[in-house]
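Marked as duplicate of an earlier ticket. Keeping the data here for the record.
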Amino acid sequence: MSDKETTIDTVKGDSAQTGQPKFAATVQPVPADICARIYNGWDGETLPTPPLVTTMQPFAKGDIFLSCTYLNNPYDNHAGVGRIVQYDQDLNYKGVLWIGFTTHLIVHLRFDPQGNLWGCDCQGHHMVQVAPSGQLLPETKFLDVGLASPCFLKDGTVLLADYFKGDTPPPGTCIRQIPGSGGQIGQARLYRFDRNGTLRDEWSPQSAPEPFNFKGITHMTLHPSEEFVTYTTETGKRVMRFNIRTGEQMPDLKVCPGQTQPGVMDRDWAIAVAYLSDGRLLLTRGETIEVLDEAGTVLRTYSMPEYGWAMIQPCPDEQAFVTTNFFTGMMAKVDMASGDIIGMIDSGTGVKDTPKGVVPRLGLAGVAEFGG
């Protein structure tokens, strides 16, 4: 566990209003005893929390889902009650699902071929699955590892990637250690499972350096051929590829300019990736979103308001995509042809002034649109 504090520059407030002031938040390491209590079911004080009443409705075509973990732990800025919020096709609030068994951010919302919605608490080693009826399904136990980025193959198997690597979480939050690993929080490995959670394959792809040296395979997408995955180490420079048929690393699709240096946030990096059905790749860069062809050439760039666009998924018709801003708590739906933002949702998350001081409390970490 790191004993160093860190300072984060971000946007103050709950919405993406232009010109909001920035501030520097000092984030302390989370003590080991607090981490243990969080993973065992937090029994201490919490920040103000609303009544946990689930109102999620059966999924309808065009519904948009946001994973907005309710971050109510005063010591850990990624810990709280699991929550997925449902909006209709016109971006009106529709319902909410509260999840009792997760401990930290729910990331990477994705639909499987049966229409079940998946989400990943990679810090707490939990997988969330919600049926199209809106009912939370019993938890499937995969490995006791920080798994995320579910990718569904036609043979019924699922790919999951280890979000973390190394043995030192960043200040401000806990990451559960992998049992029997000698204290590691992650090993940046790639796994394939049967749908019942049985391990079928395991690989050790490369990962990229990033400024804080704790991230592994943070964002992954399956190529339409199902021959390989394309993935990033968030805030690293490389857009990497790994062949799941041969078990071999492939040449990088893209390398961003510059050199990664410890603690240096140059913002010229790769974040989230998502394939379109024709092999074009959506890539978030923080303030912009690129479309790459199969050779890594940038076909188009979309400029976005503010900085912090960290999750992306194509809409089912692929005429638009949905993306979320981790810092401002905003979701945007963007028309791919015009580049216009055709709708936005303010999730109500973002940086919070809490009784413990001003700290980042950033809960929006997943988005998906239901295809019907």
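See parent ticket for discussion. Residues 6-369 form a domain with the Methylamine Dehydrogenase; Chain H fold (CATH 2.130.10.10).
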